[in-house]
Amino acid sequence: MSTGVAVEVPIRRGQRDRVRELVRHGPPFDPVAVSELESHDVYVGREHVIFIFRGENVTDVVEKLMHTPSVWTAGADWRRSIAGRPYVLEHGYAWRRHGT
Known about the structure:
Shape: globular
Low-confidence stretches: none
CATH class: Alpha Beta
Helix content: 25-40%
Number of helices: 3
Oligomer: single chain
Order of helices and strands: EHEEHHE
CATH topology: Alpha-Beta Plaits
Structural class: alpha+beta
Radius of gyration: 14 Å
């Protein structure tokens, strides 16, 4: 069964454009190569960026990705834009039209 995990990261004031640029470059991993991953979305707000992962055993997948060298390397690019620790958001509700 497919599940989802969201990770919210607070961003520093004045860094929204920089975060948008970082997001435009895509993830620091190849999502196609992560077979359990069905989708990955990123939303940029004024004060937070939210990373959404969906797939089989996605919590384990995200945990593995957090320990991947390419993700750590990308973290250096994000360092000046992040205002605090990332945290996992608990799933509360979902609605999907059948077949979409």
